[in-house]
Design brief:
about 500 residues; mainly alpha; Serine Threonine Protein Phosphatase 5, Tetratricopeptide repeat; two-stranded antiparallel sheet; 8 strands; about 40% helix
């Protein structure tokens, strides 16, 4: 495991080397180690590509980070225990097992790469360089903010629950290799995130560049951060900067399903590229975790939509088009209870296979190398509806209706009918299997209910019940035992033993 202290030692060593060298065994030719030397805009661009590539690790956006947000949100269930990822669903974590320490190690690995880009660019600017590093600096600052935001949500309590509790170590500078970093308060992480995003915004390009960060990705992230801080007016400004830009357009109901079989569509504000030769996890991909078991050889079929999600959906909602029937639909040889659950509704999601026909998203037959959609315009509309709900219900209804009309039989919301619950439920309908729900539920302080034993065969739950809310210590990951052995003074999260 790469621990913070070890990463810092490696970084301190590599910065003493004059020549640049690659950090991947077999990297694409346009990538370089973000912890090596930087002397030009070209260097910065290459290193940014390498950094973004590392965001798509299986331990981060390539799979596990999205699984975390899906499996814990109650709108997903599992067929049976004993499959990869079921510890997320059951909240079965300890410092020594199922700690998902890859979030910590990969997050800090990427964070220190971002720091190196930022600090090197600022050093060159202070020396009077004539090269224009603005966009590169803005991207690196935004990426650092994204990583900090993700880490503090994984390991810290929600800002609007206890901003003074332990968050993460906020690292923005080189520190001595022998340093033993402690966790800073949640509030400090958010202060740094806002500072980075605010500094970055005027530096960034407004052009849409597939696979890279731009001004509108910055604004989406800043808006979300403000909402986590309960600053709805500032959040609304950010979301409306995106909505009113004209840069992106919502998918119509008629083309929503097909949008998943295309990369960098009209709603895609930030989409991380996955290609057959770069981060394609094959049968370990998100698509194979979510598709019907047996759809292809070795398809995992680990996670299914729960009854709670299916019950939200009307029959004429176009979003059914990206779903397919469950594991044993129509199989009369299995237990009748399994048959009944399989026939309840289409509970297998194919967003990350491109389509129920496994179309992928690049016009090829590869259905496991599908891009990761981090920010879509639909989210800007729904979060903007929430942000203006208390001040302008007519506008809130307008923003909500723009997404709700994907249900072809919906009754339009009005200023007199729109509610927070209506926005919340539409968010659930829209973002199944996009890795978002659990994080938002913690912010909203929701009680989450799970459909345990959905297929008659999965009953053990370390949650100790079918519901959970953010007051439960299991809603934060433990600091892994490996990290504690390296840095014994680091604070463990409540509810977990530090010496397991």
């Amino acid at each position: 495991m790469k621990k913070i202290t070890n990463i810092l030692i490696s970084l301190a060593c590599v910065l003493t080397i004059v020549s640049c060298q690659n950090f991947l065994d077999v990297p694409p030719t346009n990538q370089a180690d973000s912890s090596t030397c930087l002397t030009s805009v070209h260097d910065a661009e290459v290193m940014l590509t390498g950094l973004i590539y590392n965001l798509t690790s299986a331990s981060y956006y390539g799979r596990n980070f999205l699984l975390y947000g899906d499996a814990k949100g109650g709108d997903m269930t599992i067929y049976t225990g004993g499959n990869p990822g079921d510890a997320l669903y059951y909240f079965n974590h300890s410092a020594s097992s199922n700690s998902y320490s890859g979030f910590w190690s990969q997050g800090y690995y990427c964070l220190l790469q971002a720091n190196n880009i930022i600090n090197n660019i600022k050093g060159l600017q202070e020396e009077g360089t004539t090269e224009d590093f603005d966009d590169c600096l803005g991207q690196a600052l935004t990426i650092r903010a994204l990583i900090l935001f993700d880490l503090v949500r994984l390991y810290g309590k929600p800002y609007n629950m206890d901003k003074n509790s332990d968050g993460i170590a906020v690292v923005t500078e080189q520190v001595d290799a022998s340093a033993k970093l402690l966790r800073d308060p949640v509030e400090k992480a958010y202060q740094q995130i806002v500072a980075d995003l605010t500094e970055a915004a005027p530096l960034m390009s407004t052009k849409a560049r597939g696979g890279y960060f731009n001004y509108y990705a910055n604004q989406m992230l800043l808006g979300k951060v403000y909402q986590y801080m309960d600053n709805q007016s500032s959040a609304l400004t950010c979301f409306e900067n995106v909505i009113n830009s004209g840069r992106y357009t919502l998918y119509t109901p008629a083309n929503w399903v097909a949008s998943w079989s295309k990369e960098f569509g009209s709603e895609s504000i930030l989409e991380l590229a996955i290609y057959p030769s770069e981060r394609d996890l094959g049968t370990g991909s998100l698509g194979c975790y979510y598709m019907r078991k047996g759809h292809i050889k070795a398809a995992n079929g680990n996670f299914n939509a729960s009854k709670y999600w299916m019950d939200l959906m009307d029959d004429d909602d176009v979003r059914w088009g990206i779903m397919d029937w469950g594991h044993y639909y129509g199989d009369t040889t299995v237990d009748p209870r399994v048959q009944a659950r399989a026939a309840y509704g289409k509970d297998c999601c194919y967003k990350y296979s491109g389509s129920t026909g496994l179309a992928g998203d690049k016009g090829s037959s590869n259905y496991t190398a599908v891009n990761i959609k981090v920010f879509r315009l639909s989210e800007a509309y729904l979060l903007a509806a929430e942000a203006c709900l208390s001040t302008n219900k007519s506008k809130a209804a307008e923003y909500l209706n723009a997404i709700a009309k994907r249900d072809l039989d919906y009754t339009p919301w009005t200023a007199s009918t729109v509610t927070e619950e209506a926005i919340y439920n539409e968010y659930r309908r829209e973002f199944l299997c996009e890795g978002k729900l659990f994080f938002e539920q913690c912010r909203w302080n929701k009680t989450i209910t799970f459909e345990d034993n959905a297929y008659y065969g999965s009953t053990v739950s370390t949650r100790r019940g079918t519901t959970i809310d953010r007051t439960n210590n299991l809603c934060r990951l433990p600091v892994s035992i490996d990290e504690i052995h390296t840095n014994p003074g680091i604070q463990q999260n409540p509810g977990y033993s530090g010496s397991e």
